[in-house]
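ugh ok so i messed up the first submission bc i forgot one of the chains. this is the corrected input, ALL of the components this time, i swear. 637 residues overall. if the numbers dont match what u have on ur side tell me asap before i send this to the collaborators (the ones from the other lab, u know who)
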Amino acid sequence: MLKFIARRLFLAVVTLAILLVIITAIPNLAPGDPARKVAGGTASPERLAQVTEDLGLNDSIPQQLANTAKSVLTLDFGTSAAGQPVSDILWSSLGNSTKLVVLSLVLIVPLSILGGLIAAFKKDTWLDRVIVNVGVAFSAVPDFVAGVFLLAFLGVPYEFFKTQASAPGEGPITQIQHLLLPALAVLAVYFGYLARITRAGTINALDADYTRTAFMRGLSTRKVFRNHVARNALQPTVAVLGTQLGYLFGGMVALEKVFNYPGVGKMILDAVEGANYPALRAGVLTVAIIYMLATLAADLLVAYMNPRTRQSLGDN
Amino acid sequence: MSTGDSGTGAAGPAPQSVSQDLPGAPAPAAKSDTPKNDGGRSGRNQIRREQRRVLFASPAFIIGVLIVLFWIVAAIFPTLLTSAGEKEFVEAGPNSKPFGDSWLGTDSSGWDVYTRIIYGARPILIVAPIATALAIIVGTLLGLIMGYYRGWVDEVLSRVLEAILSIPVILMAILVVTTFGKSTPIIVGTIALLFVPAITRTIRSASIAESDLDYVTSAKMRGESGLFIVSREILPNVVGLVVVELTVRLGYAIFTYATLAFLGFVGANVTDADWGVDVAQQFNQIVNDRWWSSIFPATAIASLVIGVNLIADSIDKALKS
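and heres the new structure output, hopefully the right one now
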């Protein structure tokens, strides 16, 4: 297990290093004058000079790379044009995103695992087909489309649902109430995907020899499920959840716009709007790091659930 | 969605796969869906015919094709479906309710919502298919070559692809479009480029699985060149997978373009009909109880994505049958 962890950590560091190179390369690869594109056509010469500096284009490429790496290691992403440290905006946005992600996960994880299990146990019945097909249809729809529908058909007609995701007060109940619609939109998007993965994993586990043996030994369905099926059936679900966590934090840009929620996505949009490149870069890097940590955690968890996977790392 | 069962993770709001380093998850194409029949071309043709029969008998496929065809007609011949212009002030006046003076109502600018939707099919149906086609060509080539030759080039490229996959497509697109400019060719190129890693990864795993099979070994022993083996031996056996990947990615390209449009990252002119732009311009009207001007274009986006996914799903099922 230790060897597995070491190898997996090494891979994560390599991936992060490559990512830093890519992020640093983007402004250098841009055609024409990227500062003008970032700042907009009407920017003053002083503003343009400032944005060029923000893009890092005044430094040599190795120097730029060192700066990017340093910003990640020290979590100091410079200051915006208005003089505000980028990390301040970043932390408050991350805090807001975390609230939304946690509430979404509280809804998504139990519901979609339950849906997947029901579909697997009732395989090929109408119930299975409804869960799979409705789920697939919803998960194809962009998050902001789901958000706009919820806004129009729940948010406006019912006083209980709020159209603005940030609560005016501090109380946790009020905050949850305000976050409910965006969280439901996330649920609509993720339910089908996770339920389907869970269903497939469960069907595989139910078909496996060890399950048949367990049934033949006369164990009850409940016992077979708890002791033999669950840990194998849920491995793909855990793995997928890990890969999706980064997306939950950073991929909900459009949904945050619909509900006017100041999360990481909104921060990135504002950064583009205000030609605040340090904030834009910081947001993107942070989401990537969250993704890496989450996949790392998921891989370790899967390895813990199934010792066999520890050996095959790398021979993909 | 279609490949969800096989664990490639092509589904979901963010089209990223299960981490490559996760041996616990079923390998994407370890068991290639295309039957391996190196016995002869006729055997393969017969299987293909059978698969086509299953496909054309599937109601999901037919519904998907009808939806997509409708929008293609709208994109090519909008005047067949509506008599008004995309920026024409219709008689009903602004904010007219649907199913009254105007079929789907009018928006706050006084434009006919139905007409805007018909005209709005064009930009999305230009960008998404071109971007998908480019991504499929590059991704398939890379995947086949990486999977067949392996070695350190494969190792390095795999790491690079992994790094790109660690950022949500939409964020990377925002970063690139902001620094490169908002023109249509840049948007097409960006979406294409960002879809390459996921496609490459799927095709690469399939290519690795195929490379271990006897027919490849025997081709090698016959002294065939690597180019011949990749293009004439392996490629035909992963074509089914490429087709599934093509339709699935098309769904995501539509998804991605619509999202970029909603966020204001496409085109210079917000008055041009475009579903995502129209939703962005009009969704603030919802709180004034004027839901139709954003809900109908949002429905158009949903219908196109669902249509493409129904097709992708049916093709995937037919190939597995």
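quick check: Residues 105 and 310 of chain A are 27 Å apart (CA to CA). that seems consistent at least. Chain A has a mean pLDDT of 84.
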